[in-house]
Amino acid sequence: xxxxxxxxxxxxxxxxxxxxxxxxxxxxxxxxxxxxxxxxxxxxxxxxxxxxxxxxxxxxxxxxxxxxxxxxxxxxxxxxxxxxxxxxxxxxxxxxxxxxxxxxxxxxxxxxxxxxxxxxxxxxxxxxxxxxxxxxxxxxxxxxxxxxxxxxxxxxxxxxxxxxxxxxxxxxxxxxxxxxxxxxxxxxxxxxxxxxxxxxxxxxxxxxxxxxxxxxxxxxxxxxxxxxxxxxxxxxxxxxxxxxxxxxxxxxxxxxxxxxxxxxxxxxxxxxxxxxxxxx
Length: 280
Prior knowledge:
It is built from 10 helices and 12 strands.
C-alpha cells in the first residue's frame, strides 16, 4: 500500500478532535485553530476553511467592482473599437450597454470577437450572451452556488431600484475563500516589485515599500504616514482610486492598472520631464 494513501485526510484529522458536536460556529473555529496549532493542517488550509465559513456572512456589495470602475462596451461601438478596449483592459468578459450603464443588454466574451476578425459583417448584438443579474444583498455562498449551476463567471449587481451598482465575478467570490488569485500579470516575488515595460514606463506592485521605490528611482518621495507605494497613491487621492485613474506625485505619474473596491494591486509609473527639460 502506498504510505501516502494511508495518511488521514483533513476531515479525518478533524474528526479526531470533534469528540462532541460544537455548539456554534465560533466554537468550531476554535477547534480548527487548535488543530492548526497541533500541526494537523497548515495555515493555508486553515485560511481556506475559515474563508468558506465566512462567505455566508459577506454580501455581494462588499466585493463587487463599483459602477464607476466597471469596464464596459456600448452596443453601438464597432468591432474594432471593442477589440481595442479588450486589449487595453485585458478582461475576458464585458457588460454591453445600450443607452447608459443601467441598460445592460448582455455580456460579450472576448473570445467571441475572434470570428469577427474574419467576418466584418458580424454584428455585436449577434455575439452577446445573456447577462445574469443579482441584488447587492445576495450572500456570496448563494452567488457561488448560482455561478456553479448556471456556469456564469460574471453577474451584474443591481440596487433595490433596479439600477446597476457594479459587477461581480466568480474570481471575486473565490478570493474571499482562498485569498487573492494571481494571474500572469501579477508579481510572484519581491524582486519583481518594479518591472520596466517596453514603453519606457514601469509596472510597480502596490505593496512595494516606498523606501525601495526611492532607492530604485534615486528619489526622495516623502512617506511619513504610509509605507507602500499603493498607500502613497491612495493617500494623495484621498480615496480608493479606480482602474485607469492617474495622479502626479513628486515628478512621477502613477496610473492604476489593477484594483478592486478595497485595495490597489498594480500601478504604471512614469517619470515626468523636469521643468528644466520643458523650458529648454
